[in-house]
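Minutes, structural biology subgroup

Action item carried over from last meeting: produce the structure token record for LRC18 protein (Sclerurus mexicanus). EB confirmed the sequence was re-checked against the source entry. Recorded below for completeness.
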Amino acid sequence: KEKGPKGKRITLKMAKNLIRVSFNGRRRLDLSKMGITTFPKCILDLADVEELDLSRNMLRKIPNTIEKFQNLLWLDLHSNQLDELPKAIGTLQNLTFLNVCNNKLTTKSLPEELTLLKNLRTLNLGLNCLESIPTTLGSLKELIDLGLFDNALTGLPKSVKNLPKLERLNVKRNPLPELTEKEEHVDSIKRIETLYLVEEKDLCSSCLKMCRGERDELHKLEDMTPSSSKKLSFPLLLTPNSSAKDNQEEWRVR
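Output recorded by EB:
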């Protein structure tokens, strides 16, 4: 007996009924969210489709027979249980979109043949188990969008960073040194968490001098910006935005 879930059986008739024509005229075979555990052999008879969606299933392996889909421009395998990609994926020379996000891929399980996809514009490798990115991915000169988020990357090769057409590079939630530094960066702007209201007579001379200087700066800013005709004036308070004169005792911190 086979181990693991048996999964849903897909027939050729079912698959034919799941072909849809997208807005750009491409024929898409949509087998997403079907509970599939093994690649349906019957769909090899539909290998002339331009788009194939096998996402959100329980696939553990994509066979080398994927090479039959020579017309494929768009291949979505995200949210499965793939721990490797077949070498034959490199034969899909027309691919412009490949999504293998949210699987169990490691750096070793990325085949070198992936670099043969010279027309690839979008590659999503996010949410996997990658510890590094092969420098050879820098040969994918048409890449515009590269997803590497939620992996275990500690560095990126220059060949990938310097891809000529790359517009979007998502490396969020990786232990990259530059990301760690940003997370540890301390905000240099002091944020006001507490506001104390006091009268001038309660301040020492040095504090009074400092507060008067700050107040003068605020007055200069007020003179430079338009204000309403009605102004509240509380000369004994050092905070011009306060309207608490009648309740000073409740606001004052002793």
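Discussion: The beta strands are 19-21, 27-30, 51-53, 74-76, 97-99, 122-124, 145-147, 168-170.
Next step: EB to file the record with the rest of the batch.
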